[in-house]
Amino acid sequence: MNYEPKDMTILVVDDTPENISILGDFLIDYNIKVATSGQKALKLAESSNLDLILLDIMMPEMDGYEVCRKLKHNPNTKDIPVIFLSALTEVKDKVTGFHLGAVDYITKPFQIEEVKSRIETHLSLSTYRKRLENINEELERMVNERTQQLFVEKNKAEEASKLKSHFLALMSHELRTPMVGILGFSEVIYEASNTDLIKDYAENLNKSATRLNETLSSILNFSALQAGKQTADLHPVNLGDYVAKIIQKHVKYAKIKGLTVNTSSIEKINTLTDYTMLGMIVNNVMNNAIKYTIEGSITVDIYSELRQNNLFDCISIKDTGIGIDKSQHQKIFEDFRQADEGFNRSFEGVGLGLSIVKQYVELLNGFIELESEPGKGSNFKLFFPHISNISFEEEELGTEKQLKIPEKKYKILIVEDNQLTIELEKLYLKEFGEIIDVDGGYAAIEQAKKIRFDAVIIDVSIGQGISGLDVIKEIKKINGYENTPIIAFTAYAMDGDKEFILNGGATHYLP
After folding, report:
1. CB 225 within 8 Å of CB 280
2. C-alpha distances in angstroms, 239 versus 141, 266, 301, 314, 482?
3. Contacts (Cβ under 8 Å, ≥6 apart) of 141
4. Can you tell me the distance from the alpha carbon of 496 to that of 491, in angstroms, rounded to the nearest whole number?
5. What is the number of other CB atoms lying within 10 angstroms of the CB of residue 409?
6. Residue 306 and residue 313: Cα distance in Å, rounded?
7. pTM of the model
8. Helix or strand or coil: residue 475?
């Protein structure tokens, strides 16, 4: 028995005083309440905290069946266990009692020990049921509280994610925009200068700005990865040709250090990849190879290799640099870590390049292997799943083409709110014809209505008024502009910005 009798209250309902007296004597350990009619029983049940009802059937005015029916229809009393005590012995009488919701049926004359045993059984069951109900109520309360808490946390997380995305986009725009001026004008000064000293100044300025731009890109890309804002956009590509074109721009930097770049072992392999991610991967590893190699060479190989019964395409970039101790192999792929750290470190950088490389490779379903020893150079092997039976028209990707000044003079509209960017664009485009600039979306639309431009170069964010994308939509509605090139030249260069801007109506996108 899992209860204390003194804590349990039993209602005895019977119109025969002798039956009540007998039951009262044997149930003295319990709290006993008595009702001699059905109406009194219903009132007591409503007003008292009962644990069990012993109910006679044959009573005047309202029989036990009707009492039980009313008890079970009342939300306040429906869960009180009812045991019928009756002289009716027919099976149909018992069945009726059970159908009405009774938990037991005892026929008169009854054996008091049997009654006590059944009472104890049903009080124990009732106690367990109440405990279970209390546990369920507590669990439901806890679940509701936790659900509300999770709902609040979800809303906070979503708001934080939106704020982080907005911050990344804002930082991308606000930091990249001045970089256009610094990098661009340092190149212009270098080309326009007739003195070696000014050329040296301009070149040093450009180098510093390039380093700052690389650091900025690394931080923004890392932040986008941490925010889960980057996904792979796969396209077919000839891996050998694409990597070879990426490598070309590193050759001149290697030559400055007296290094050679060997690409003779690059195989042409068709695969599916994300152009931007693959470019970042190869550029970062090549930058490291050149940075950490004092003399010798960098060798780039591309081939297919069987690993664990699966075929992978491998890009191997091997240098003759300082090498990395085996104990540092894992650390260099961690965020903001380098093999050489502290105030006396020998090489610059924020320690994000290889961290980004590793995350991009994994987004492309690949993996990295490193073979390196101090003084013996390093070999970074980048493995990507081999995709067979790819057919596509090969695109000219990453090719630097010689600028040809057109014989025809064009009218070009620049829509931009940053004066430095406007001046730089005018310098780049002055040989192409008449360049007109406006500040503001509405002014751009009015200018397009007055003059038939051959091309429009527009920033997505152009200060107050309507956005650049809205301007693009309005200009394309103007007769004659249906097929005019509208080039979005913008510092919004986070993952997904290109697709968003092109879907917004721009024909070209220049980050």
Report:
1. no
2. 58, 9, 11, 10, 36
3. none
4. 13
5. 11
6. 9
7. 0.50
8. helix
Q: State residue 218's pLDDT score.
A: 66
What pLDDT score does 396 carry? 45
Name the token pair of 32. Answer: 């006993």
Which strand ranges, in their side-by-side order, compose the sheet holding 486-489? 433-438, 410-415, 455-458, 486-489, 508-510
∠ CA 465-493-498, rounded to 5°: 85
- 71 touches 53 (CB < 8 A): yes
Task: Quick: pLDDT tens for 257-291.
Answer: 899 998 877 777 888 888 888 888 898 899 889 98
Distance CA 506, CA 50 (A): 77
H or E segment to which residue 150 belongs: helix 112-192
C-beta separation of 9 from 31 below 8 A: yes
The residues of the chain scoring below 50 in pLDDT are 336-351, 393-400
pLDDT tens, residue by residue, 473-509? 989 889 988 889 999 888 777 667 788 888 888 999 8
